[in-house]
Amino acid sequence: MLQRLNHFLYQILWAGLILLLPITSLPLLSKAAGGSMVAPASVLPLAILIIVFLPLNLARLRRLPRVVTPLLAFVLLAVLSSALSFFIEFPLFREANRLRNMLSGFLTLGVGLSFFFAALLLTNSEDQLAFFFKWVNIGGGIALLWAGMQSVFWYMTGDYPDWMGRIQSLISSSGNLYIRRTTGLAFEPSWLGHQLVLFYLPCWLAASFRRFSVFRWRLWGISAENILLAGGVVILVLSLARNALLSFSLSVGWLILLTTARLAGWIHQKLTGRGSRLFFGLPASLLKTCIWLVIFGGYAAILLGGVFVLTRLDPRMADLFRVIRNPYTPLEAANYLFFGERVAFWITGLQIFGQYPLLGVGLENAGYFFPEKLPLFGWTVVESHKMYYSSALPNTLSLWIRLLSETGIIGFSLFVSFLYLLWNTARFLSRDAHPLTATLALTAQLTLVALLVEGMSVDTFAFPYFWLIFGWLLTAFVLRTKSISDELSAHG
Length: 492
Fold this sequence. Notes:
By secondary structure, the chain is mainly α. It contains 18 helices and no strands. Helix 3 (43-53) packs across helix 5 (98-121).
């Protein structure tokens, strides 16, 4: 009876956690965290999961895969860097408190790590992984439905009904519904794009590519993941989250690259096969080159068409082709395309890194140096002037530059090493015969590819999306390694 109750509670908490993932800034948690914008609602069931079930799974702590070693070393390095930062002379920044800011930085890192280790240590079977992916589909479908309703009201009436605004204020600390851009259940449209390209779309794209579904039913041969993938792409476009669109394009491009070699080989075989004299005498290398050029030309045309459509939907991109035609400097071009403040903040972070290259300035401390390190161009954008009247520290707006400026080249290298080992793990599991494992491996690869670009837009550790994917990937690795070991022992 007790075991059945534990199993029921376990499933309820995990289902609740996954269902709440689209809510990125729950007002209740935001207030408790001192007004933090990043306050994922899924932290609530996560806390109960850890308190109740982690003590029951302590034996799994001995079975942490070696892939986790660079991550643990990164955490220790972050502690060391933050401790040594007290020996650095910091510029004054209004009434900002250094100790409180560093604790806030470790809190966000701790939240991300909690999702990762919960996924890794509290998952014991492939059936549980399948259960999680079912709820990913359900939760993602609900998020897409709400985002779609927002877009329908906006494009049909040019406004949102009052009841929709009231609901949004209950689930988001901003409570904002954006002109022309769908925000879903997230704080803002770019955060909706973030969760789509790092979590939901990789799951659905990998499942569609592998022709795998966690559900048995199909509608005229179409799976739930196929439908959700199509809906997710539409919502991503309607969010007008430019960085997320670029991230997803990179993921799709990498998937295309995987299949192009096979496609080019198949076309080459058909053109030069028995009975075909169309390309008789043409060198094989030249023919293969022509095939690749034609294929990539088609892909480039599709991408260019997508960019053209975006210039018609998003006013920020309306001048894209004019900017390309004119000899603007990169900073001028960024300003015309409405991301000049990001470039200015990236440059500032890199200048901080240049002054403290080994260990950085400690978590959440980069903002103190912004008033003196911000380039002259940075003072021409609106975002910079918030430093005059806000006590909140500015940030680098990029995960990669934050790693460099706050933990130095050593912390950056450790974190990137962790991601590299995850990539190798995903490549190894992508050849697994078990369809769920292979699909999860491809999901992780797509997430890692998207993170390369998305890491230039979001700089917080607290978002749970890639942490969960990585935790589930290593769970699958542990389970498959154990299965292989058991088989070898049985035959030994």
